[in-house]
Amino acid sequence: QVQLQESGPGLVKPSQTLSLTCTVSGGSISNSGYYWSWIRQPAGKGLEWIGRIFDNGNTNYNPSLKSRVTISVDTSKNQFSLELRSVTAADTAVYYCTRGSQTISPWGQGTLVTVSS
Amino acid sequence: QSALTQPASVSGSPGQSITISCTGTSSDVGSCNYVSWYQQQPGKAPKLMIYDVSNRPSGVSHRFSGSKSGNTASLTISGLQAEDEADYYCNSCTVSNTIMFGGGTKLTVL
Hints:
By secondary structure, chain A is mainly β. In chain A, 0% of the residues lie in helices and 48% in strands.
């Protein structure tokens, strides 16, 4: 079955760019017919949808983050990525990559990213 | 965009039924047939429990059911069990081609 794994730095300095990659195994992103999404969860708080990319590269973003976010896909590596620019402490959270956006399954295990100097 | 509204907490005794509501607007829940529900155990990634308002994925107990009326979706858990204690989240598409989550509900099994 499809599995997702997030990877990237666990610590990012304020004002810098948070970059994460999601590696998909057990299935291909290309021509999958699925959206692939990033979702985050600050400690003790709820889930926040960041954005999604379709298998043709089309993207949609959360309006509150849109000016700072880019989601891209590398079909040759079967990966998709998240860039979040100009981060602050408020961006500290567990970041999940997922298949789907309205019906989300499966989820990656999540990776904690802390924004601190 | 604001989060969909869920009660912060609900509780019930083993064997009872509980319902968690997820209230949005005519721009999201009211116009979207793709409302889903997720269960999150402490320290774990969320798990899909209901999709497309009322469908259960393979392997999810029949005790979980979903429905929608107007701008409010609901998750009902019947025959509560201790293992159902978790946080529950709804999500919905919107007319703006974005996704919204509910604020989450903590279910306590007494």
